[in-house]
């Protein structure tokens, strides 16, 4: 009697005693907890900032910006559903000629495609900020809140919130984070002195006539380090960093063991976990340390 079985991606015989590897339930719990913490801390710490930044985007840009996250969420749900429906083991696939199974390439390809779309949009948003600044027109912003930030937010000194109207008469909300040593020092002396009093005032700003949700203070320039595309780049950097580390570990495991380890199945949730980690980290810092982005 044949005591071997064949793996799902080829005809390599595998011993029945080595055929399957369990996926620990604790892994699913840990991943879900990380995602939960990332969502809660991210919303509490930077929720109002994300809302403010999304006002600068159109529906197409929002969809592209979150494309990678949507694909990551799909594969995470796929992972959870398979586990809850009893697929709590993975085949111990023997690797021949160091070739990964097609299923692994399918998931990796879709995730890389999503991250590439997000990266391309990030580059586009950076250019759009520059182009919008070049054609911007002046308006007046009525500042209603000038908040002195705590010392933990150093070097950021003030958070400004106000409203302005575009050429069509529509009202928009403006928010600025500025530093005493950089931005405030670039303002005319009279404006800088008035701002330091932290009383409601009118601040000359410029807006993109084609996308009036985008606004700047001319003296500060177009490249605001608090823009959303920098947060997106930070998330992508973590995804690439952790992804490279996981790929290197996988290569070493395949080279040593000649089969895929059970944790290979977690490649479906790596990107989402990386993003959850970043938002949990930033959200926690904002909630408990700097109090910079949200009131």
Short structural description:
With 295 residues, the protein is of the alpha+beta class. The chain is 52% helix and 17% strand.
Tell me, rounded to a whole number, the average pLDDT: 80
Helix fraction bin: 40-55%
Poorly predicted residue ranges: 1-19
How much is the radius of gyration in Å?
25 Å
Q: What is the total tally of β strands?
A: 9
List SSEs in N-to-C order: EEEHHHEHEEEHHEEHH
Largest sheet properties: 5 strands, antiparallel
N- to C-terminal distance: 71 Å
Helices, by number, come to 8
Shape: elongated
Structural class: alpha+beta
Strand content: 15-25%
Walk across the major sheet and give the strand order. Answer: 7-6-5-8-9
Word description of this protein:
The protein is of the alpha+beta class. It has eight helices and nine strands. Strands 7-6-5-8-9 form a five-stranded antiparallel β-sheet. A two-stranded antiparallel ribbon has the order 1-2. Strands 3-4 form a two-stranded antiparallel sheet. Strand 8 and strand 9 form a beta hairpin. It is elongated, with a radius of gyration of 25 Å. Mean pLDDT is 80; it is low at 1-19.
């Amino acid at each position: 009697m044949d005591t071997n079985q064949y793996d799902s991606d080829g005809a390599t015989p595998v011993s029945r005693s080595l055929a399957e590897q369990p996926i620990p339930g604790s892994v699913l719990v840990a991943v879900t907890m990380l995602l939960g913490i990332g969502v809660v801390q991210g919303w509490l710490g930077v929720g109002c900032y994300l809302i403010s930044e999304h006002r600068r985007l159109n529906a197409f840009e929002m969809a592209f910006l979150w494309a990678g996250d949507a694909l990551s969420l799909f594969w995470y749900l796929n992972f959870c559903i398979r586990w809850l429906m009893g697929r709590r083991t993975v085949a111990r696939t023997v690797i021949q000629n160091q070739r990964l199974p097609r299923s692994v390439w399918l998931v990796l390809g879709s995730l890389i495609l999503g991250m590439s779309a997000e990266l391309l949009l990030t580059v586009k948003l950076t250019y759009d900020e520059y182009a919008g600044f070049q054609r911007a027109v002046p308006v007046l912003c009525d500042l209603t809140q000038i908040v002195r930030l705590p010392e933990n937010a150093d070097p950021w000194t003030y958070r400004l919130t106000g409203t302005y109207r575009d050429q069509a008469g529509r009202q928009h909300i403006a928010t600025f984070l500025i530093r005493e040593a950089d931005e405030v020092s670039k303002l005319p002396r009279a404006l800088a002195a008035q701002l330091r009093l932290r009383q409601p005032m009118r601040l000359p700003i410029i807006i993109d006539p084609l996308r009036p949700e985008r606004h700047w203070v001319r003296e500060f320039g177009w490249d605001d380090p608090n823009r959303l595309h920098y947060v997106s780049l930070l998330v992508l950097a973590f995804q690439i960093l952790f992804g490279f580390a996981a790929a290197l570990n996988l290569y070493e495991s395949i080279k040593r063991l000649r089969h895929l380890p059970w944790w290979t199945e977690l490649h479906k949730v790596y990107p989402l976990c990386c993003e959850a980690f970043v938002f949990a980290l930033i959200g926690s810092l904002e909630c408990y340390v700097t109090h910079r982005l949200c009131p």
